[in-house]
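User: New here, please read:
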Amino acid sequence: MRKWHRWLSVFFGVFLLWIAVTGTLSQVVPLYIDATSSAPAAGAPQPEVACPEGYTCRPKPKDGDPRALIGLLHHLHSGESFGPLGVAIATLSGFAMIFFSFSGLWLYISMWRNRKDRGVKPGWFWK
Protein backbone atom coordinates (compact mmCIF):
# COMPACT_ATOMS: atom_id res chain seq x y z
CA MET A 1 0.00 0.00 0.00
CA ARG A 2 2.82 2.39 0.86
CA LYS A 3 4.43 1.89 -2.57
CA TRP A 4 1.16 2.77 -4.36
CA HIS A 5 0.64 5.76 -2.09
CA ARG A 6 4.10 7.12 -2.90
CA TRP A 7 4.06 6.53 -6.67
CA LEU A 8 0.58 7.89 -7.24
CA SER A 9 1.40 10.96 -5.16
CA VAL A 10 4.33 11.75 -7.47
CA PHE A 11 2.01 11.87 -10.49
CA PHE A 12 -1.18 13.29 -8.97
CA GLY A 13 0.49 15.73 -6.55
CA VAL A 14 0.78 18.41 -9.24
CA PHE A 15 -2.85 18.01 -10.34
CA LEU A 16 -4.14 17.99 -6.77
CA LEU A 17 -2.19 21.17 -6.07
CA TRP A 18 -3.76 22.75 -9.18
CA ILE A 19 -7.24 21.71 -8.07
CA ALA A 20 -6.64 22.97 -4.52
CA VAL A 21 -5.36 26.37 -5.68
CA THR A 22 -8.07 26.97 -8.28
CA GLY A 23 -10.76 25.75 -5.88
CA THR A 24 -9.53 28.09 -3.16
CA LEU A 25 -9.33 31.01 -5.58
CA SER A 26 -12.84 30.30 -6.85
CA GLN A 27 -14.07 30.75 -3.27
CA VAL A 28 -11.91 33.75 -2.31
CA VAL A 29 -12.15 35.82 -5.51
CA PRO A 30 -15.94 36.36 -5.27
CA LEU A 31 -15.49 37.72 -1.75
CA TYR A 32 -12.85 40.15 -3.00
CA ILE A 33 -14.92 41.16 -6.03
CA ASP A 34 -18.06 41.76 -3.93
CA ALA A 35 -16.05 43.83 -1.43
CA THR A 36 -14.30 46.03 -4.02
CA SER A 37 -16.83 46.12 -6.86
CA SER A 38 -19.72 48.49 -7.31
CA ALA A 39 -21.62 45.62 -8.93
CA PRO A 40 -24.74 44.39 -7.13
CA ALA A 41 -24.07 42.07 -4.21
CA ALA A 42 -24.72 38.34 -4.47
CA GLY A 43 -28.12 38.62 -2.78
CA ALA A 44 -29.27 41.68 -4.75
CA PRO A 45 -32.05 41.19 -7.31
CA GLN A 46 -30.76 40.45 -10.78
CA PRO A 47 -32.43 41.14 -14.14
CA GLU A 48 -34.70 38.38 -15.39
CA VAL A 49 -32.99 35.79 -17.58
CA ALA A 50 -34.50 32.73 -19.25
CA CYS A 51 -33.69 29.98 -16.82
CA PRO A 52 -34.79 26.37 -16.21
CA GLU A 53 -37.41 26.02 -13.50
CA GLY A 54 -35.97 25.77 -10.00
CA TYR A 55 -32.65 27.44 -10.86
CA THR A 56 -31.45 30.94 -10.13
CA CYS A 57 -29.83 32.45 -13.20
CA ARG A 58 -27.85 35.63 -13.62
CA PRO A 59 -27.05 37.43 -16.84
CA LYS A 60 -23.75 36.53 -18.46
CA PRO A 61 -21.04 38.97 -17.30
CA LYS A 62 -19.92 41.47 -19.91
CA ASP A 63 -16.32 41.57 -21.11
CA GLY A 64 -14.10 43.24 -18.55
CA ASP A 65 -16.46 42.48 -15.66
CA PRO A 66 -14.40 41.00 -12.80
CA ARG A 67 -17.17 38.46 -12.15
CA ALA A 68 -16.20 36.73 -15.42
CA LEU A 69 -13.06 35.60 -13.58
CA ILE A 70 -15.19 33.35 -11.37
CA GLY A 71 -16.38 31.36 -14.39
CA LEU A 72 -12.81 31.04 -15.65
CA LEU A 73 -11.65 29.74 -12.28
CA HIS A 74 -14.46 27.18 -12.27
CA HIS A 75 -13.48 25.93 -15.72
CA LEU A 76 -9.81 25.70 -14.68
CA HIS A 77 -10.76 23.92 -11.45
CA SER A 78 -12.92 21.30 -13.18
CA GLY A 79 -10.52 20.83 -16.11
CA GLU A 80 -13.12 21.97 -18.67
CA SER A 81 -10.67 24.53 -20.08
CA PHE A 82 -8.44 21.67 -21.25
CA GLY A 83 -11.15 19.64 -22.98
CA PRO A 84 -12.11 16.02 -22.32
CA LEU A 85 -8.56 15.11 -21.26
CA GLY A 86 -8.61 17.86 -18.62
CA VAL A 87 -11.95 16.66 -17.27
CA ALA A 88 -10.65 13.08 -17.17
CA ILE A 89 -7.50 14.13 -15.29
CA ALA A 90 -9.57 16.22 -12.84
CA THR A 91 -11.87 13.24 -12.25
CA LEU A 92 -8.94 10.87 -11.77
CA SER A 93 -7.38 13.39 -9.39
CA GLY A 94 -10.58 13.31 -7.35
CA PHE A 95 -10.39 9.53 -7.18
CA ALA A 96 -6.70 9.81 -6.25
CA MET A 97 -7.61 12.13 -3.38
CA ILE A 98 -10.09 9.54 -2.09
CA PHE A 99 -7.38 6.86 -2.41
CA PHE A 100 -4.81 9.03 -0.60
CA SER A 101 -7.26 9.65 2.24
CA PHE A 102 -7.97 5.98 2.78
CA SER A 103 -4.43 4.72 2.18
CA GLY A 104 -2.94 7.42 4.44
CA LEU A 105 -5.37 6.45 7.18
CA TRP A 106 -4.57 2.77 6.60
CA LEU A 107 -0.81 3.45 6.81
CA TYR A 108 -1.25 5.46 10.02
CA ILE A 109 -3.36 2.74 11.65
CA SER A 110 -0.89 0.02 10.68
CA MET A 111 2.03 2.08 12.04
CA TRP A 112 0.03 2.81 15.21
CA ARG A 113 -0.64 -0.91 15.74
CA ASN A 114 3.01 -1.84 15.14
CA ARG A 115 4.45 0.74 17.54
CA LYS A 116 4.36 -1.75 20.44
CA ASP A 117 6.79 -4.03 18.58
CA ARG A 118 9.38 -1.25 18.54
CA GLY A 119 8.99 -0.31 22.20
CA VAL A 120 7.47 3.09 21.48
CA LYS A 121 5.53 4.87 24.23
CA PRO A 122 1.73 4.60 23.72
CA GLY A 123 -0.01 7.68 22.35
CA TRP A 124 -1.66 9.06 19.25
CA PHE A 125 1.58 10.57 17.91
CA TRP A 126 5.13 9.35 18.38
CA LYS A 127 8.63 10.25 17.31
Observations:
- The longest helix spans residues 2-36.
- Residues 12 and 92 are 9 Å apart (CA to CA).
- The chain has a mean pLDDT of 76.
